[in-house]
Write a structure and sequence with these properties.
CATH architecture: 3-Layer(aba) Sandwich
Number of strands: 6
CATH topology: Rossmann fold
Distance between the termini: 15 Å
Number of domains: 1
Radius of gyration: 17 Å
CATH class: Alpha Beta
Mean pLDDT: 93
Largest sheet: 6 strands, mixed
Length: about 210
């Protein structure tokens, strides 16, 4: 089996990926010099996936994020995503990857409680006994709900990748998460989204592999 590197599986693909990583490192070297090797690899992957060096400035991790995230991944704990697109982007993981956004129960719960489906999906996951890593790339309401569920002891979260994108509630929800005791990775401001969320969790998986 051929070695893969950032999704590459052919000689040409490997060369392109290696060159891209070299460029990324040259762009963010000074910005990441105080990070651990694991933290640096996560930031590099995010910048590589977005082609945006600013993520080296706005990506913030709690001191225990890498440790707790890797511990959960190595034990095969479940991963919970806010939307199907984030779930589809996570690869080479032997554990379960769950997304309840299209679950009929979540749709009904959202209607009954007059909340977003993304928030309802988090509540449903908690009811189903979720324990593991939460990865949120799009819905601030899902992130708020996760924090609420953790605070009330209703959800056993090992770490959270909280990078919802947008101009309404995204920055506020990420700031609030980063101020909690939950092991977390966030991006400051409105930037974030599926590529960032996927890059962060895939980087953790790749470190374990």
């Amino acid at each position: 089996m051929k070695t893969t590197f950032m999704g590459a599986s052919t000689k040409q693909g490997y060369e392109i990926a290696a060159k891209s990583r070299e460029i990324v490192r040259s762009l963010i070297d000074e910005k990441t010099k105080n990070l651990t090797p694991e933290e640096r690899s996560i930031v590099e992957r995010i910048v590589h996936s977005t082609a945006d060096p600013e993520y080296a400035d706005i990506t913030k991790m709690s001191g225990d994020f890498v440790e707790k995230g890797l511990e959960a991944i190595s034990k095969g704990k479940d991963i919970l995503t806010d939307i199907s697109m984030v779930k589809a982007g996570i690869n080479k993981y032997s554990g379960n990857i769950n997304c309840y956004i299209n679950d009929e129960r979540a749709i009904k719960l959202a209607k009954d409680q007059e909340i977003t489906r993304a928030a309802a999906a988090m509540e449903l996951a908690a009811c189903d006994g979720f324990e593991g890593v939460v990865v949120i790339g799009n819905a601030p309401t899902a992130l708020w709900k996760v924090m609420e569920l953790v605070e009330t002891g209703s959800m056993n979260v090992k770490a959270v990748v909280g990078v919802p994108v947008g101009f309404v509630g995204a920055a506020e929800s990420k700031k609030a998460l980063h101020e909690t005791s939950i092991p977390n990775l966030v991006t400051e401001g409105p930037k974030g989204g599926t590529p960032v969320a996927v890059a962060a969790v895939n980087s953790l998986i790749n470190i374990i592999r």
